[in-house]
Please model this.
Amino acid sequence: MNYRGGYAGQILRIDLSTGKVEKVMTPVHLATGFIGGRGLSSYFLWKEVGPGVSPYDPENLLIFAAGPLNGTPLPSSGRLTVAAKSPMTGILGDANAGGYWAPELKWAGYDGIIIRGKADHPVYIWIDDDKVTIREAFHLWGKTVEETCQTIKEELDDEDIRIACIGPGGERLVRYACVITDGEGAAGRCGIGAVMGSKMLKAIAVRGTRGVRIADPSGFKKAVDQYLENIKNDVWLENLTQFGTPNLVVHRQKLGLWGAKNFQDDLLDDWENISPERLTEGHLVRILGCLGCVVRCRRYSRASFGKYGTCYTKGPEYDTINALAAKTGITDYNAVIYAHHVCDQLGIDAQSAGSSIAMAMELYERGILKDNQVSGLDMRFGNSEAMVEALFMIARREGIGDLLAEGCKVMGERLGAGYFAAHVKGLEIDATDPRRYVTRALTYSVATRGSCHLRGYPYIDEFITREEAEKWFGEPEVSNLESLAGKGKMIAWSEDWVTLADLFGICKFAWYRSRKFNNLIVRGVEIAGNAFRAATGLELGGEDLLRCGERVYNVERLFNNLQGMGRKDDFPPDRFFEEPLKRGPGKGIKLDREDYNKVLDEYYLARGWDSQGAPSPEKLRQLGLDGM
Model:
């Protein structure tokens, strides 16, 4: 069974130590067993990066991976996976960015780029269809993301090329440095930008002039029409178009899920100042979307912040509002938008940066961090000037910024304050406080890249019917929010299902956000599967596709097990078991260790893993991984 479309058909392998550039065929077994995107990157990390390779070792791989639906006319199919062994966690790390870069890579003729080695001076890679060159980048080193992109475009005399690059944060190995695509798409988590900086690679510029072949054009058009019809009837997606991801601000306050002031509070005082309406009325310049997206959840905003003046920037997203506003206790939209802009331009992950600053603010207020340790900054919650200045210091690794650049886990270790470090496996907890719902706590804790709200879909029990729960999970009580029954199995299934979006290269917001369980199957498996089959000519049914998601998740777990990760690492922070929520709808609630262990055991059983979280020989045999 060979692919007849969808895939570009070749992968670039580049060794920066030797300058060797090689083009290899995209293996058919990857297309049929791992699909692409995150499947491709996870497979190569598993096969080629051993436990003795450190994140900054030249032998660590840096992978840019597209999916088979990138570059096709399917709406919202512009997502890119960037991966490496993570400096944050020491395990598998990947990050995801939208926009135009992944489609451009496909149009240039490549399904992915695998980079090994380290250049002896700053370089960037220029991909112009078949022509691939490694160029000197002395003149780019030290530049911001915007300056880098503009300089390369002028140098190559093409305003339309697509660029993925790092900022000063990646050059200085800020542990959570990110990769930015086209000046605004942040592949933020896990510190992949620091790996890129360790290889002395400043940027990858791409120009592609080819299309992506579609094996069955009429079938693909039908799938696109089905997709558009399904999306236009979804109320959730209407809210995304109207307000973007900041629409979640109201939801988080209503349910008390903020994790405000470094998870000391579940509600955020003066939250109305950062409401979606306030963003729209006072800061929104225009609404944007990624390539071919009909949802158009991106915001382009304006902000003026004190001595720093006025900025125009992509965003903010809910995740950056959570990190830079709620966690730090700052509700000035001008400060939050400007801080978001600074993170993008310096190439640092706003979620980890905000979390690290918030932790420092709590430690300062508790007297653990002293005045002589904070470089003259007033590190109290709510101080927007201190937050913004700290971001610049992080990217320069200057003063207190050198400690903040390490992230919460290392900060806790160095200061003897690990209890206040809100992370799982070294990656800071993002998006929400999981204490109220054990399903969210489990999803964050077993996620294969460290804490992540996007590795699963723990909200299914909020809307699934008893009949659907019994059909899919063999337990009607999955539909009962108060019951633990079947929740481990639900999370395991949701991870396999959510993984498909990362394999295809589809945006999760357009693909999986729905409050009807049946729609998760229709849009997420049936329609997306129809598009995949029509694009590639590969006859993989719904169960085959879900099995691919399961296979990738197990490969990622195998990789992490080899790095020493196991059951001991699949737990949320102790603080969430010790301190109850204070005043929201979940007042008095905290995680229960007995309940959590019960759901974790059920999750392992559903996964076919042993009691310590290692895939069993039988599971590996079922997935065809035993002989690989």
Q: What stands out?
A: The radius of gyration is 23 Å. Residues 162 and 523 are 30 Å apart (CA to CA). The longest helix spans residues 542-562.
